Amino acid sequence: MFQLVCHPSGVVVEVALKKLVHAVVRWGRKLDQILRVLLAHILASAQRCPPISGVEGTIDSHLRVLGEQERWNIEVLLRMLTELLPFVHQKAIETCPFASVDQASSTPENLLSAYGMKLLATGDSEWPAFEWMHTDCLPDLIKLACLLPVKEDNLRIIMAKYLLEVSGHYGKHYLEHIMLPVFLIAAGDIDSGDFIYFPLSI
User: Fold this and answer.
1) Higher-confidence position of 88 and 150
2) How far is residue 149 from each of residues 62, 77, 153, measured CA to CA in Å?
3) Are 66 and 51 within 8 A, CB to CB?
């Protein structure tokens, strides 16, 4: 599946993304494994490339010069991540540990509302399918963004569209109380965020 998704032919990639990826997820019930491999492939594609500066400790020594193949791989793998988002969101809803606590509040919208964020922030429940987004995915996307040189605007646009899709699926409470704090912590600005519902486990 990953070989077909990263194929040099755009037609093959489109069919793999729209048909094969969905079929494999539904057939194999291996979403967790696919997501782990996917994030590893995305980061590895950038890390394989040589640094822009060969001088250790310089301001741009962490940035990478992407080759054409690596750029293509990262692009299609980010698109694959977007294709998998509905499955990730659905699994999070299905595995919610406090869905039965209050039946009136157990709709997908309410589980990811301030009510759900508050229950999660107490640290009394584990919710791995939900926490994957902010403990694995978002930090890896931040790492990737830090590896990309300035000229890779196309990849940044795809990443921004993915983040927009995440906020669309998970809602404004997730955006304000989980996503934004993750990015503020990464930027070293913990004074600007609202950490009231930020999970204690992170």
Assistant:
1) 88
2) 9, 18, 9
3) no
